[in-house]
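protien #1 (seq + structre)
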Amino acid sequence: MASILCLETSTEVCSVALAIDGIIVEEREDKSGKNHALLLTCFAEEVMKAQNRPFQQLDAVAVSGGPGSYTGLRIGVSTAKGLCYAAGLPLIAIPSLEAMAYHVISDTYATGIGNNEPLFYCPMIDARRMEVYAAIYNQKMQLIRNIRADIIDHLSFSEFLVNHKILFFGNGADKCKTSIQHPNALFLDNITTSASHMAELAEKACQNHIFVDVAYYEPFYLKDFVATIPTKNIFHSNTIG
């Protein structure tokens, strides 16, 4: 029976959950999207304190491995590494899209989607403008199409939609509704990334000793970070100091 602290920061959601044997026993979550650096460590401490457990009693720390927000992923992985170093724990990385897909596929009652008809599942994370990070899974959690960045238009996923119904969900799916209007395109609302979705996958990884290198692990950013210049420069200067 493994005790795993799960951290999810790949989107606007800052989430921490303590799982025992793959079952959530304590969690904290904030969806404001602005306080990951402030809240993540506090949430981790609150969760452990609420269960009266020191970090040293954990079997592992699991972190969302991307894709997603560059800054969010950096905060999550840095925090996870710090906890692992301090307590001498192994690190597990769970792909963000895989965790969302696993939640929807495995919890058909909660999501309102039955499993009588074969579906493909497409979790989506907002990548700004009309771009999303997405992948396609079948009902057995097999990857049908690899994770990539998609610029959404009326032809998006048409090669799959012609023969399969696809369920789109995640914080990137809302902006796709007006563009993807194929009769085989279905949309499931209110599915977000969450540390609670990582618990069973993290448990399986821990039992199979699937860990990443604490020193060298880097999250899957998918795209390089691009710094932008503010439209309003308070110094009224055209140079960057």
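ok now protien #2
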Amino acid sequence: MKVLIELENMEFKAYHGCYDLEKKVGNRFRVDVAIETEAGEAAQTDDLRKSVNYLTVYEIVRGQMEITSNILEHVALRIADAIREQFPATDRVTVKVSKLAPPLGGKIERVSVTLSK
């Protein structure tokens, strides 16, 4: 049985961006993660060890968000790679990283990058 596990709207203050000011004062970011995996045995046995631990995924995302990057593509790739490394049985990991109110010279809610691996 295939399942889709989603952690949505995780919010972090981080220091990603190509401008020095972004790296100094930071910005707010939202991260969404979707993990496609086989979960038949976990569902039948109610055994967390057979599934993807949501807390572990959150901690992976939080840890990767603490590492400053110039571009969101790099952040999303690091998150996806770290999740796949921790949970190698996953079929697909999709990560969306959004910078809220980016400093682009006008009013804009967010800019986002979505990556699937």
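Helices lie at 20-25, 40-45, 54-65, 72-86.
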